[in-house]
Amino acid sequence: MLDSALLADLRAARRVVVFTGAGMSAESGIPTFRDRLTGLWARVDPMEIATPRAFRADPQRVWDWHVHLAEAVRAARPNAGHEAIAVLERARLEVTVVTQNIDNLHQRAGSAKVIELHGNLLRLKSFVDEEAAFAAAAPPVICPVCAGYAVWERCDPWAERADLRVIELRAGRVPRCPGCGALLRPDVVWFGEPLAVEMLEAAWNAVEECDALISVGASLEVEPAASLPWRALHRGARVIEVNPAPTALAAHCHASIGAPAAGTLPELFATIWPPL
Ligand code: APR
Predict the structure, then answer these.
(1) pLDDT tens-digit profile of 246-263?
(2) What is the distance of C-alpha 243 from the center of its chain?
(3) Which one of 9, 221, 237, 276 has the fewest CB atoms closer than 10 angstroms to its CB?
């Protein structure tokens, strides 16, 4: 699987980034986005379901689509790949998981340091309707509960953020912020939206400092996330890809393992970094 020189370099690594995409959770039963027949985007146009404009046009349709995905996420369990990554932290490595996934499975497997580049499906935030907020005559009020632009006058300045924590992404009418009445939406990055600056900075810093990066189940088709494994490679870190369908990275990284995540990671990590 790995040549002896690469194995020696990996064993000498102290800081490891595990970069994951939807393929990481495929063996937990959560569909990927771009797999030809089974991918989510094979069944619906993401521009109709995963953009601020789509939500503004039909909040209920967008809400219901995310509820359906959230039900699959709640029913899923971390797979052996997620668990192998969590065990890595016991091999006295500094492990940072940089994930594009919104399913919370790395955290449920026990990984401590997880950077969620694209947010988390099970967390809500207010829908900041920029057009409505900035069209308003008065400057927008920031709601203390949902931290969004309060669209309604009755925003209660003494309301607690806790009010929002009790609202979940479940079937039913699109909920509104109890503080200001703004519509709520999943706290995920939709197409056309920027990533949270602090997440991107944390991911970039982890990649700048790592000795090794393992890219697992990522098609590397969506920026800026897709640039992260390439940056690690150009910096001189040892880079491995685990993906049944090798990406463009495969021809340039130090090893490309054309196999599924859950079936590969436990043996791969135990070979390179046996738990102490
Ligand atoms: N193990 C490892 N990799 C797998 C497995 C598996 N069992 N099954 C599929 N894959 C690979 C596929 O070959 C593909 O390269 O996982 C990858 C999934 O690619 P995408 O569906 O494009 O998912 P991802 O790379 O995470 O997409 C990035 O695009 O739509 C946006 O926000 C969305 O975060 C997502 C981003």
Answers:
(1) 999 999 999 999 999 999
(2) 17
(3) 276
